[in-house]
Amino acid sequence: MLISVVVVVKDTVKTIQQCIDSVSNQTFHDKELIIIDGGSTDGTVDIIKENDFKIRYWESKRDRGIYHAWNKALSHIHGDWVYFLGADDYFWDEKVLERIATHLETSSVNIVYGQVKVISQNGKILGTYGEPWNKINKTFMQLMVLPHQGVFHHIDLFKKYGNFDEQFKICGDYDLLLRYLKTHSALFIDNMIVAGKRHGGISSNATYKLRALTEISLASKKNGAGGLRLKWRWTYFKAYVRYLLNKLLGESITRKIVNSYRIFTNRTLIE
Description:
There is one protein chain. By secondary structure, this protein is of the alpha/beta class. The protein has helices at residues 16-24, 44-50, 66-74, 96-104, 133-140, 155-161, 172-181, 206-222, 230-249, 251-264; strands at 3-9, 31-37, 57-60, 81-84, 90-91, 111-119, 125-129, 151-154, 187-198. Among the domains are: 1-106, Spore Coat Polysaccharide Biosynthesis Protein SpsA, Chain A (Alpha-Beta Complex), CATH 3.90.550; 206-264, no CATH class. Strands 1, 2, 3, 4, 5, 6, 7, 8 and 9 form a 9-stranded mixed β-sheet that branches. Helix 8 runs antiparallel to helix 9 and helix 9 crosses helix 10 (251-264).
């Protein structure tokens, strides 16, 4: 069994080496690394070249976005299972693939996942994400509650359900997973930390979150998983309130307000 690890990158010179090392240092040998660079100009390509011997295929060309890049990567993989690792992220330890492989080899479903640690820019653990499928399957029909950096995709998923829809700019992964999971189950591996995901950047931006939720709604309707979507509406309302607070009070004060809410709800503070 071969596991294909796909990394899409653009101008991440500060983190790409750790990302590559976290793949090459895996004790599981039947793996390949595919890197699709979107035309970096900050020295990222130089680092990729220095690590050429660790990479089965790489290219550096302008693309139309992350899902175009992922689709390009799919045409170069040879693995039975595909995993998408962010260029800012990394495998949690060197035995992740070795441990997950025992579950992948016997899985009867096309989606297998574990948990993800969200890490601040200074290395602090902000939270752990990923819950059993029987606990989140209904919510998934309304929101993306699978930890993307914890998900492994069997190659049959793409053969039977197609590649990523490039009309989505943020939530194409949710659209793809929904095609399958609206009628099938996913396998959750308990006590399995797959990756560390850095918090910050565009994904933590209030405007970005509103756009992501809009795309999630479109994907849900596209795949016939609509309904009342009460949880989606509540999540959108909170994101919109934060967006307004950012506009009126600024990010610093808004963060304090959000942290007060997170303390009230017994959750980890954001930085």
